[in-house]
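Priority: medium. Attachment 1 of 2:
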């Protein structure tokens, strides 16, 4: 996949200029029929809202039904800025990680999720962390696909984690906004994980606390988890990658690669040893993959900052994941159900 086209660069540059100049007046988020409108959050440090009139279908926005939503790069960049500039480094269990969790809760609320789940868990260093998640019911509510990203940063590195993993969190938050309006067949569980990174000063196996905790408690969820996508480091590098540990079926990854190929995007398949949150679910028998770009030359360095985020890549992966999730139909769900066996 080529990094940029002149047209895309010009459009994104114009959008960024408009955003920085404050030309967008963010409005109320959309409500689905029968649901109350949610008022936007306006206090400092809270969620940016979006232009509810965004559409690619020419549908008119009614009083209660929103047009088809698209990935909004400006909103996604706003999330990264809040996480890595205003909050900064977010090591597991710290006050800063907690502030990031509160920000994420505010975003989920501002885009209309009335029920926001918090799942606390202990860390080996005696501190605690938490997962934050919401559910968007699909037309087949018994089938559940998890879309997740970690919001902590690696302690002791000075990295504010713009790409790792503000980019993934921003993507998950944008997809949660989009699919609250757009149709989807499987139920979607949008989660941001606490404590993915190896705890500073601890053993190399002291990581993935958040995703392992959720994966250990899937039986408590309503519905049947048939897949998981980890979005981690999607705004730096030069080529797209789809990773799997191959601890279980790679069906979901194959579906993604096929969908991407039809769009002219060809992710490299890498069998990784479990360097992101997909590992927790593949180890439990859930068909999963990790979407990312490589190589990030500022990985776990202080230069993994907002200035080094590539909006073209972020927009491309966010839009690709949106299209992929929208493409998952009943037949795909049945195949995923047959290969994902929770253990
Ligand atoms: Zn990461």
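Attachment 2 of 2:
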């Amino acid at each position: 996949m080529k990094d940029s086209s002149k047209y895309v660069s010009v459009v994104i540059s114009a959008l960024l200029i408009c955003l920085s100049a404050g030309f967008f007046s963010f409005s109320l988020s959309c409500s689905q029929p029968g649901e109350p409108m949610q008022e936007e959050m306006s206090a400092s440090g809270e969620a940016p809202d979006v232009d509810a009139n965004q559409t690619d279908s020419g549908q008119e926005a009614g009083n209660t039904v929103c047009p088809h939503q698209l990935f909004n790069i400006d909103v996604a960049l706003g999330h990264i800025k809040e996480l890595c500039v205003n909050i900064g480094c977010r090591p597991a269990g710290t006050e800063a990680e907690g502030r990031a969790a509160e920000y994420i809760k505010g975003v989920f609320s501002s885009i209309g999720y009335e029920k926001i789940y918090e799942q606390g868990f202990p860390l080996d260093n005696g501190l605690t962390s938490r997962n934050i998640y919401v559910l968007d019911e699909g037309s087949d509510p018994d089938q559940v696909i998890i879309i997740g990203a970690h919001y902590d940063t690696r302690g002791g590195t000075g990295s504010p984690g713009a790409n790792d993993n503000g980019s993934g969190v921003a993507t998950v938050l944008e997809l949660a906004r989009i699919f609250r309006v757009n149709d989807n067949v499987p139920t979607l569980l949008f989660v941001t994980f606490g404590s993915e990174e190896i705890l500073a000063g601890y053993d190399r196996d002291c990581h993935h606390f958040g995703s392992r905790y959720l994966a250990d408690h899937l039986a408590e969820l309503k519905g049947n988890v048939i897949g998981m996508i980890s979005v981690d480091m999607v705004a730096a590098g030069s080529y797209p990658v789809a990773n799997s540990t191959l601890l279980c079926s790679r069906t979901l990854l194959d579906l993604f690669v096929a969908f991407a190929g039809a769009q002219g995007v060809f992710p490299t398949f890498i069998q990784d040893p479990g360097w992101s949150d997909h590992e927790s679910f593949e180890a439990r028998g859930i068909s999963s993959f990790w979407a990312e770009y490589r190589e990030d030359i500022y990985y776990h360095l202080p230069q993994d900052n907002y200035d080094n985020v590539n909006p073209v890549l972020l927009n491309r992966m966010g839009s690709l994941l949106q299209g992929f999730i929208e493409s998952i139909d009943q037949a795909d769900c049945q195949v995923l159900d047959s290969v994902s066996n929770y253990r």
